[in-house]
Design goal:
This protein is α/β, with parallel strands linked by helices. It contains eleven helices and twelve strands. The chain folds into two domains: 75 residues, Chemotaxis receptor methyltransferase CheR, N-terminal domain (Chemotaxis Receptor Methyltransferase Cher, domain 1), CATH 1.10.155; 189 residues, Rossmann fold, CATH 3.40.50. One of its GO terms (molecular function) is protein-glutamate O-methyltransferase activity.
């Protein structure tokens, strides 16, 4: 069948779905050829492939890591925005950071699957605003942001965004305070940029070497992952958190079906999850 100008038959679709599941945990499900076509059309045209079958053959025969990386980038890059949903960042500022500050130790935050950097930089802005409030804060805060995609990590590290990107979720006050306007876009100011460290990471791999975290953001990341993969990732995150650590997931996501390591905490701003003792 032809989707978006490219041929994707049932066998090719099934094989491509297996490829994605094995390499990055993404579960396509049935009858989503339109998604494959829309995400891969530019890449297929660039390499001169007429069918997904041609792409699969190249992936099998060449072992080309660049091609594999480009395919994964195309299929896993998701929409993102600044301060998405709002309430998690209010909870972080008003509830989580003050509680962690009272423990009198360094605070480590992990933004998993950070895409082009809007989430970790939003976190960094919240931390900067919290640190500047009275009374003075003594606990240093570090932010690690990870993603599978080299291309979005490069964009995130650059800190450079176009005019449309910085409108989505940012107030005019924050745009003025945290960005420098350049001829080719808007660059996040060095004080915010240096607060975030970016690192490539596939959530299908072990992340035990990342160390322990007090706060983990894993929001709207695992929606298309299998139940077994979700279970393994959430349990892995729990192992990287001490009791009392906090996990933020998407507004429509639930972890109770996949792990018993977290309990729900309700605040006036909204709900989040806390690592059980």
């Amino acid at each position: 069948m032809i989707w978006g100008g490219f041929v994707i038959d049932a066998q090719d679709y099934a094989e491509f779905a297996r490829f994605l599941s094995e390499c990055c945990g993404l579960v396509l499900g049935e009858n989503r050829q339109y998604l494959v076509a829309s995400r891969l059309s530019r890449l297929l045209g660039e390499f001169g492939y007429q069918k997904v079958e041609d792409l699969l053959r190249a992936l099998r025969q060449s072992g080309n890591p660049t091609l594999k990386s480009r395919v994964i980038d195309a299929m896993t890059t998701n929409e993102t925005s600044w301060f998405r949903d709002g309430y998690p960042f209010e909870i972080l500022r008003q509830v989580v950071l003050p509680e962690l500050e009272a423990r009198k130790k360094p605070i480590r935050i992990w933004s998993a699957a950070c895409s082009s950097g809007q989430e970790p930089y939003s976190i960094a802005m919240v931390v900067a605003e919290w640190e500047s409030s009275f009374p003075p804060k003594s606990s240093p805060v570090s932010i690690l942001a990870t993603d599978l995609s080299e291309s979005v990590l490069a964009e995130a590290r650059s800190g450079l965004y176009d005019g449309l990107s910085i409108v989505r979720g940012l107030t005019p006050e924050r745009r003025q305070k945290y960005f420098d306007t350049l001829e080719n876009g808007h660059r996040i100011k060095p004080d915010i940029q240096r607060r975030v460290r970016f690192q490539k990471l596939n959530l299908m791999d072990s992340f035990s070497l990342l160390g322990k975290f007090d706060v983990v953001f894993c929001r709207n990341v695992l929606i298309y992952f299998s139940a077994d993969t979700k279970r393994r990732i959430f349990d892995g995150m729990a192992r990287q958190m001490d009791p009392g650590g906090y996990l933020f997931v998407g507004a429509s996501e639930s972890v109770s079906s996949y792990t018993e390591a977290f309990e729900i905490v309700r605040t006036p701003q909204g709900s989040l999850l806390r690592r059980r003792p």
